[in-house]
């Protein structure tokens, strides 16, 4: 399975309000130059024009190259320590040993309760992505032997008209997902076109209950 719409009913406006109250914890996550170069060489699909790919702030090895388009931002609601750490490292950690971020727990009371009602046997990693007047270039997250670290549940309380775009290698087509909630496997190529406004993605990983017929 690559993507599956869930159509959950929840208070999107309240989730947005709570996430924005955590702005002090947002961390810039510039896309890696590697993915920009692959897209410009037509090795992977592009979610935006080449001009925009050339204009976004990027990470090149250990150096951030600032440009006119701001990078996406991120922070963890549930993780393994109080410090921000790379996605690939977080995904390798034992999900049963994660804990809620005590620094923001009182700011996200509704969001935390909502997450705890989702169809998981246990919840490991919860990471928030915030795109404000920027885009997420096409990439794929690390392929691992643990499906729980790839197939996650996304809550998207606002998207400002910009979908998740994901490539299906079976059909050779790119699917656009506008839903407020869905499952998707982030080891497949995906990205988000320019967000004119605000888009929030809350990615939740753990051991999912069986939702698929």
**CATH top-level class:** Mainly Beta
Instruction: Detail the poorly predicted runs.
Output: none
Q: First CA to last CA: what distance?
A: 11 Å
In CATH terms, what is the fold-level topology? Jelly Rolls
- Mean pLDDT, all residues: 90
Structural class: alpha+beta
Tally of structural domains: 1
Apparent shape: globular
Summarize the amount of helix as a percent range: 10-25%
Taken in chain order, the helices and strands follow as: EHEHHEEEHEHEEEEEEEE
Rg from C-alpha positions?
A: 16 Å
Q: What's the β-strand tally?
A: 14
Largest sheet, strands/sense/barrel: 8 strands, antiparallel
* Proper CATH architecture: Sandwich
CATH superfamily: B-lactam Antibiotic, Isopenicillin N Synthase, Chain
Helical stretch tally: 5
Q: Give the percentage of residues in beta strands.
A: 25-35%
Plain-language structure description:
With 213 residues, the chain is α+β, with helices and mostly antiparallel strands. It has a single domain, classed as Jelly Rolls. The chain is 17% helix and 35% strand. The protein contains 5 helices and 14 strands. The strands form 3 sheets. Strands 1, 2, 5, 6, 7, 9, 12 and 14 form an 8-stranded antiparallel β-sheet that branches. A 4-stranded antiparallel β-sheet has the order 8-13-10-11. Strands 3-4 form a two-stranded antiparallel sheet. A hairpin with a 2-residue loop joins strand 3 and strand 4. The radius of gyration is 16 Å and the shape is globular. The relative contact order is 0.24.
């Amino acid at each position: 399975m690559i993507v599956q719409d869930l159509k959950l009913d929840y208070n999107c406006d309240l989730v947005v309000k709570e996430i924005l109250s955590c702005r002090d914890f947002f961390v810039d996550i510039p896309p890696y130059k590697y993915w920009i170069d692959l897209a410009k060489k037509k090795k992977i699909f592009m979610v935006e024009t080449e001009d925009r790919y050339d204009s976004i702030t990027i990470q090149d090895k250990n150096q951030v190259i600032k440009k006119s388009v701001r990078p996406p931002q991120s922070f963890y609601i549930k993780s393994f320590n109080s410090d921000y750490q790379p996605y690939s490292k977080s995904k390798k950690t034992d999900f049963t040993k994660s804990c809620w971020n005590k620094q923001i727990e009182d700011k996200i009371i509704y969001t935390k309760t909502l997450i705890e009602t989702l169809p998981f046997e246990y919840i490991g990693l919860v990471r928030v992505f915030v795109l404000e007047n920027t885009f997420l270039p096409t990439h794929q997250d690390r392929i691992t032997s643990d499906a729980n670290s790839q197939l996650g549940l996304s809550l998207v309380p606002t998207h400002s008209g910009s979908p998740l775009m994901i490539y299906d290698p079976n059909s050779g087509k790119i699917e656009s997902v506008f839903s407020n909630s869905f499952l998707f496997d982030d080891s497949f190529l995906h990205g988000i076109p320019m967000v004119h406004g605000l888009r929030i993605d809350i990615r939740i990983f753990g051991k999912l209950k069986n939702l698929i017929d």
